[in-house]
Amino acid sequence: MKVYLDTIGCRLNQAEIEKFAVQFRAAGHKLVGTAAEADLVIVNTCAVTAEAGSDSRQRLRQAAKAGNAEIIATGCLSTLEGDSLLRLPGMIGNVPNSEKTFLVDKFLNERDQSTTRVPQDRQSIPGRRERTRAFIKVQDGCDNHCTFCITHIIRGKARSVPISEILDDIHSAMEGGSKEVVLSGVQLGSWGSDFVPPKNLAFLVQTIMNKTSVPRIRLSSVEPWDLNDDFFELWMNPRMCRQLHLPLQSGSNKVLKLMGRKNTCQQYESLVKKVKAICPMIAITTDILVGFPGESDADHQQTLDFIQRIKYAAGHVFVFSPRPGTSAENLPNQIPTGIKKSRSKEIRGLFSNQVEEFHQQFIGDKLKVLWEKSSPDNGNGFLLEGWTDNYIRVFARNRQDLHNEISLVKLIEPKDDRMYVEICGG
């Protein structure tokens, strides 16, 4: 059977389809790069915003139009709107998050394909989801109750993956050639808090450093209130990728309180100063939610001013959309669509400038890059694209294909959101 796996949304969704990929391959099935080639399509959906939900439905419709594959939806939109998704063309199943772990086994058993499984190492998923980096699920669920977010409803309470399972996944990824792992979860910083006795994320990362030789370890999003001062010492180890994604959401304490966030702007800024003191060249990235109910022009300006002070390496901007089941859905003082779009555009422009500023300070420096993409360059070798450990997207031309290799490069010149580099060596 030919299987196409697709996902929308967070890095945790990516980690989950990588698990599906290993399970299908272990049962003797082939992964393909497009829905048109497939006998079965699985789409891991997202519902964090109305736009993400719309993208998920569109992806399911596109799969139906592309060929004659049977289609299964899973993930957050499946949990939220499962019955409606089943009415889409080609759909044979809908698997909510609570049953996602057993999706592959259940499907294969129903088709009498529960044959002997041959253990498989992690390999890149063909198609748009191909990644040399391995996304490792270490945690699921969330105990926060941000008023705008539906994730804690559709993902459930925070739950940690046992450390033995995490290490097995990392070893499998390494045996498959991965040189970077991205630790992923909904509330990543809560890892270990549900154990007896409790552990923490710093303990997990240190254990990975001690018990594996994976060259690069990267974290997905971590909430600022889940970190303590000891955590930042992890960046004294060069295997730790110098990037920290700290969601801000708003630079206004008033709006943060309305959102149900557990920190103030002052606490957030103090945290950033601490990590930069230990790792000055770290890339701090963030999320901003614009147009939250009650957000005034003054609140918006405070957010702009705060972003200017922090000097981010990059940022994602989301426009508030009421989600059914959240307390923010019925808050007064909803912001008109035009104002939300205007504020979003302004913050996106500010982040664009900060990306350029962050890149400029490294011109002439030598950094290591993991090459994620490689394509023929008009008969003159290969066009390579990859990322530095501190989240600078780079490209180079080279006669040798260095896909999934780590190279020392010299940063030469910014080109839009990327940097042109010259390869110096391995």
Which labels suit this protein?
alpha/beta; Rossmann fold; 18 strands; 426 residues; OB fold (Dihydrolipoamide Acetyltransferase, E2P); pyruvate-formate lyase- activating enzyme; globular; five-stranded parallel sheet; five-stranded mixed β-barrel
Number of strands: 18
Summed over residues and divided by their number, the pLDDT gives a mean of 92
Percent of residues in beta strands: 15-25%
In sequence order, what are the helices and strands, one letter per element? EHEEHEHEHEEHEHEHEEHHEHEHEEEEE
Order of strands, main sheet, comes to 2-1-3-4-5
The global form is globular
Structural class: alpha/beta
Quickly count the domains: 3
The major β-sheet equals:
5 strands, parallel
Give the CATH architecture of the largest domain: Alpha-Beta Horseshoe
Walkthrough of the structure:
With 426 residues, the chain is α/β, with parallel strands linked by helices. It has 3 domains: 2-110, Methylthiotransferase, N-terminal domain (Rossmann fold, 3-Layer(aba) Sandwich), CATH 3.40.50; 128-360, tm_1862 like domain (pyruvate-formate lyase- activating enzyme, Alpha-Beta Horseshoe); 366-425, Beta Barrel (OB fold (Dihydrolipoamide Acetyltransferase, E2P)), CATH 2.40.50. Helix content is 33%, strand content 24%. It is built from 11 helices and 18 strands. The chain has helices spanning 11-26, 50-66, 76-85, 103-110, 151-155, 163-175, 201-211, 253-259, 265-278, 297-310, 337-360; strands at residues 2-7, 30-31, 40-45, 70-75, 91-95, 134-137, 139-140, 159-160, 180-184, 216-219, 243-245, 283-290, 314-319, 366-376, 382-388, 393-398, 406-415, 418-425. The mean pLDDT is 92.
